[in-house]
Design brief:
Layout (H helix, E strand, L loop, with lengths): L1 H24 L51 H17 L4 H32 L11 H13 L6 H10 L3 H18 L11 H7 L3 H19 L6 H18 L3
Length: 257
């Protein structure tokens, strides 16, 4: 039985070796070649048009989409100051990272800036409400503010007709409008339309008026007074005469004449 298998293996092995020898000894196929002459070459006779780049074409490629290398911006003195301040706070409060300390410094600076702006606005508004904000708009504010504040305190003792006459004679039309307004408040208080108080504002007096016609008239006169006096705009003769007539009519209205 073993001899039979050995004989079969020998026969198959001989056939495989014979097939390999046959493959190796065969010649490769020959590839045919084609010869071309100058007559076979085609010449392109179409006209050639030269193309040029558009002017400033590089500008189209300067956007962020065409930046392939990121370059960190250079630090200025403010950036170095923030980093120094962050290092100080990091040592004081033991922040874990420099980024956390920088975030804290940014929030702190914004808070301080807002606080400073609020304080400045507070003092400006306080100065205006105290009738001492005229220095913002013009000159000789100290002298005029003191004088006219005294006029308000003595509203019931002043002779407004004489003060207005003297102001017009000296060319102080704005001062004359000021006196007309204080005179109007004096007449309104005397006839019980309002209750005079130096701490009250124009809005307070407007609220105390009962009749709509009185409210409308006083609102307009208050607008003229604020525009001419606090705005510090010089008025011409025509505008002053119109304003003067309006105040005279109001004095008659509230004077029950």
């Amino acid at each position: 039985m073993n001899k039979f298998f050995f004989f079969l293996y020998f026969i198959l092995h001989c056939n495989i070796v014979s097939a390999q020898d046959t493959i190796i000894t065969q010649d490769p196929p020959k590839i045919g070649s084609t010869k071309y002459t100058e007559k076979d070459i085609r010449i392109d006779s179409n006209p050639v048009t030269a193309k040029h780049f558009e002017k400033n074409f590089k500008e189209n490629y300067k956007g962020s989409d065409f930046i392939y290398e990121y370059k960190a911006p250079e630090k200025n003195w403010w950036d170095h100051f923030l980093e120094w301040l962050a290092s100080v706070f990091r040592n004081l409060f033991h922040f874990q990272t420099s980024e956390a300390a920088l975030d804290f410094v940014g929030i702190l600076i914004r808070f301080i800036a807002v606080a400073v702006i609020v304080v400045i606005i507070y003092f400006i508004v306080k100065a205006l409400l105290n009738k001492e904000g005229k220095w913002i708009f013009g000159k000789d504010s100290t002298k005029k503010t003191i004088f006219y504040t005294d006029a308000e305190k003595n509203i019931h003792l002043l002779d407004f007709e004489k003060l207005i006459k003297d102001s017009i004679a000296s060319g102080e039309k704005r001062a004359a409008v000021r006196y007309y307004y204080l005179w109007l408040l004096k007449v309104m208080a005397k006839n019980h339309y309002i209750e005079w108080d130096i701490e009250k504002t124009n809005s307070d007096y407007l609220y105390e008026l009962q009749r709509p016609a009185h409210k409308e008239e006083f609102m307009y006169l208050s607008y003229l007074y604020n525009y001419i006096w606090y705005g510090e705009f010089e008025i011409d003769e025509t505008t002053f005469l119109k304003t003067q007539n309006r105040f005279k009519n109001a004095l008659k209205t509230f004077g029950n004449e």
